[in-house]
Amino acid sequence: MTSEDQEEESQSGSDTLLTLSNIQYLVEGLDSLLQTNLDGYKRAKVIKLRDELSAYIGNMFSD
Question: Which conformational region is residue 38 in: left (phi greater than 0), alpha (psi within -120 to 50 degrees), or beta?
């Protein structure tokens, strides 16, 4: 792999970077989604994802 290939690969990966503000925005969106009429399975998945993201944020500040 050439250095150009490595640079291109690293730049494409930066498009998916989650910042603290993006994660907080996602958590707020998931909270809003929970106020809608979701079935049990989808609701459980949303709650799990929201809790995982909240824990991720909490762990960033506890280290």
Answer: beta
Helix (H) / strand (E) element for 14: namely none
Contact 50, 33 (CB under 8 A): no
Q: Global pTM?
A: 0.61
Q: pLDDT tens digit string along 48-62?
A: 998 988 888 888 777
Contact 50, 58 (CB under 8 A): no
Angle at CA of residue 52, ends 36 and 43, nearest 5° = 25
Q: What are the residues whose beta carbons fall under 8 Å from the beta carbon of 31, sequence distance 6 or more?
A: 50
Which one-letter DSSP state was computed for residue 35?
T
